[in-house]
Amino acid sequence: MTVIDKTSFEKINVDKKNHLFYQQLQAMVELCSSDHSEDTLQKISAFSNAYPRSSHGYALLGITYSKRSFFDAAFINLQKALLLSPIDETALTCLRALLQDRGRHEDGITILERCISINPADPIVWQKYWQSVKSIAYEEYTEATAKRFIKILDKNNLIRPSQIISSIIRLLEKKQNLLEISRIETQSSFNSELKRVISVLLETPLLLRIIELCPIPNIIFEILLRRLRKAFLLHDNLETSNNNYLAIQCSLALHCFTNEYIYGEDKEETQKLRQLEQFISDVVSEGASVPWRHIACLASYRPLHKFNWSRNLKAPVHMTDLFLRQVHHIDYELSLRDSIPSIDLITEDTSVAVKEQYEDNPYPRWVNIGILQKSMTISEIINLAGIRILSNGPDSSNQLKILIAGCGTGQHSIEAAVRYANSYITAIDLSLSSLSFALRQTRELDIENINYLHGDILDLISWENRFDVIETTGVLHHMSDPMLGWRILKRCLKPKGLMRVGLYSSLARAGLSVVKENMGELERPITNQKIYDYRNKILDIAGVEFEKLARYPDFFSTSELRDLLFHVQEHTFTLIEIKNMLNELDLVFCGFETVDENTKQAVSAGGKGPDSLFSLDAWHNFEQLNPHYFSGMYTFWVQRLD
Ligand SMILES: C[S@@+](CC[C@H](N)C(=O)[O-])C[C@H]1O[C@@H](n2cnc3c(N)ncnc32)[C@H](O)[C@@H]1O
Predict the structure, then answer these.
(1) For residue 557, which of 22, 87, 215, 304 is within the disulfide window of CB 3.0 to 4.6 Å?
(2) Are residues 325 and 356 in the same domain?
(3) Could you tell me whether strands 423-429 and 400-405 are parallel, antiparallel, or unpaired per DSSP bridges?
(4) Residue 438: other Cβ atoms inside 10 A
């Protein structure tokens, strides 16, 4: 059902002559937004007849007919509106929603493409576009759909690529020749078919593009990429001058860097890599030039910043991105470390151990982010999240002070800085590697309302700063005493302030404990090599353990897998425990974030009507029946009253 966007009418230019028309139009817009009775329909019809050359009357008629479920009449009027004004935003929005609701997704997307061409900078249209493209159940692979995804990915920072990766995989799985090369049984047959493999990959630019941006949570494509990487390493007599080969190698190297070399390597590869490293180092020290394919090949196993010679090479244009991400970004992050102020020394045992983990493996290593959204007031954010607060929330007439406690590598702080209108963000974390990654990205995106601080949540105990909103997702459960951390954060919250919290669910993570029991613990200290070996052992065994893990996208990159299975400190909770903690903290549960309609109905049906959505008991009952629902995390809002 279309919700009328009154702002599109506010953009209409009014001169004095049109004053009467404008007044009447405003009255009609009000009427149409609040009511769709027969009487309203007649009034809007009369208005439309009085101004037959204006698109607005037809657009409003279309909306009213649509609300009254007279879809044919709605279509006719919306089309009339668009004939008069092909850029009538209200008519376009309503027509798209109508098409989408009637299952005509493709037509709906075509309308959105028209909206984009009319207004390419409008973030809302882009947002609707990726949501629509993503949600179609594709029956076959088509170039048109692949191009749509590329268009979305090319619009850097429109969304986190991980938000559309599953849809892209579902589409690519329908591409017959890609499936065929993914199913080649052995490495040696793969090597002998390399030419065919390359030509299929060259005609699948969507795969090459997405692998540069995020890990691929799919084992079939993982096997393809592993084989490809090994084939390039073992066959260094491949055509040397072929830039197409090099382009694929660069995508692959960017992919392996992004998943933090989660594929590991076998003995044959390690031996060959030793020779390759030696060869490159000798050639460079003689002042001769190394074929670029060797550098790209090495970069798909080792990050180039590890090699001093990488700073002296002048990369060709098509390798700029590879050098940028594997060398220059890392050097820049190192140079930023000292500029991040510290709150205090980190001394508590668990915090020290957790810090070490995230210094080794900053989490997560991301490329693009979802920031092309409209910034919103706090009430808009509350509405969108679908939560209910009990008394007036933070006062948005002043600049909102927001604390991100445990900001990681900055996705969280940057998205918050863009989402909350008129806000100033303080973001703290234990890990300097994560913070310098976050600071680099923040500067590159020209975001100026974030202050990064190095420190422990425990250090905030003596802080005088108070915040309107505190967000802490995926953090408290890594403290030795989560309740203490939570209490300290509550102290930093202003009265009526809001907190957005993410905690692990015991039920959803029960499968992981079984995997750990079956596979045995990893001996500490945890190293990346041990993680790769452990993971490869799981893949060799395949079967149940792998299936449990493959549900988690975290299985497909090193820092995320370390977070998933080998964290130095992890607590999990039931909703009843959370309810008790909230009682003790005197915080009010405001609801889970963005719950889909089916779930809302299920929770309401199992409890006492719609109010159940704000009862942790009702959610607990729901979770018992749907144990995987919170497999990411419980993400909910709470409010401080006093
Ligand atoms: C799993 S990451 C989550 C990052 C981010 N909140 C997000 O949702 O993407 C956990 C982060 O919390 C930080 N962290 C854990 N315990 C902390 C503490 N006691 N004080 C500050 N940061 C902490 C870690 O360093 C790590 O970067």
Answers:
(1) 215
(2) no
(3) parallel
(4) 29
- In this prediction, residue 123 carries a pLDDT of 80
Judgement on whether residues 194 and 270 belong to the same structural domain of the protein: yes
Residue from 355, 428, 429, 435 to probe ligand 1 pocket by mutation (most atoms less than 8 Å from CB): 429
Query: 67-100 burial string, b = 16+ CB within 10 Å, else e?
Result: beeeeebbbebbebbbebbeebbbbbbbbbbbbb
Report if residue 282 sits inside a domain: yes
User: Which of the listed residues 342, 347, 354, 567 should we mutate to test ligand 1's pocket, taking the one with most ligand atoms within 8 A of CB?
Assistant: 354
**Angle between the N-to-C axes of helices 219-234 and 267-285, in degrees from 0 to 180, rounded to the nearest 10:** 50
Say how many domains are in the chain. Answer: 4
Q: Using alpha carbons only, what angle is made at residue 123 by residues 77 and 153, rounded to the nearest 5 degrees?
A: 115
Q: How far is C-alpha 500 from the geometric centre of its chain's CA atoms? A: 17
pLDDT at 467: 97
Whether 91 is in the pocket of ligand 1, judged by its Cβ within 6 Å, is no
Centroid of ligand 1 to alpha carbon of 276 (angstroms): 38
Q: Which residues does residue 424 pair with via DSSP β-bridges, in sequence order?
A: 401
563 lines ligand 1 (CB under 6 A): yes
**Ligand 1 centroid to 164 CA: how many Å?**
24
Q: Is 411 in the pocket of ligand 1 (CB under 6 A)?
A: yes
Atom of ligand 1 nearest to the CA of 348: 19
- pLDDT value at position 1? 43
* Pairwise CA distance, residues 289 & 279, whole Å: 11
Ligand 1 proximity of 427 Cβ (cutoff 6 Å): no
- Domain residues for the domain of 303 are 175-334
State the Cα angle at 174 between 131 and 147, rounded to 5°. Answer: 50
108 Cβ below 6 A of ligand 1: no
| Nearest atom in ligand 1 to 502's CA | 8
Residue type, 563: D
Q: Are 300 and 368 in the same domain?
A: no
Beta carbons within 8 Å of 340's beta carbon, 6+ residues apart: 432, 435, 436, 439, 452, 453, 454
Q: Ligand 1 mean position to 95 CA, how many Å?
A: 44
CATH number for position 83: 1.25.40.10
Domain end: 472, 495, 518, which one?
Answer: 495
Q: What is the pLDDT of residue 492?
A: 97
pTM over 0.85: yes
For the chain, residues with pLDDT lower than 50 are 1-3
Nearest CA-CA partner of 472 in 554, 409, 413, 391: 413
Q: What is the CATH number of the domain that holds 384?
A: 3.40.50.150
Distance between CA 557 and CA 127 in Å, rounded? 27
Using CA atoms, how far apart are residues 8 and 357, in angstroms rounded to an integer? 50
H-state helical runs in 361-481: 378-385, 411-419, 432-444
363 CB less than 6 Å from ligand 1? yes
Query: At 496, which helix (H) or strand (E)?
Result: strand 493-503
Q: Is residue 466 part of a domain?
A: yes
Is 479 close to ligand 1, i.e. is its CB under 6 Å away?
A: yes
Residue nearest to atom 10 of ligand 1 (CA): 475
Same domain, 300 and 185: yes
Cβ 9 vs Cβ 25: under 8 Å:
yes
Q: How many residues does the chain have?
A: 642
In a domain, 440, yes or no: yes
Q: Which ligand 1 atom minimizes the distance to the CA of 355?
A: 25
Residue 389 lies in a domain: yes
**Closest protein CA for atom 26 of ligand 1:** 408
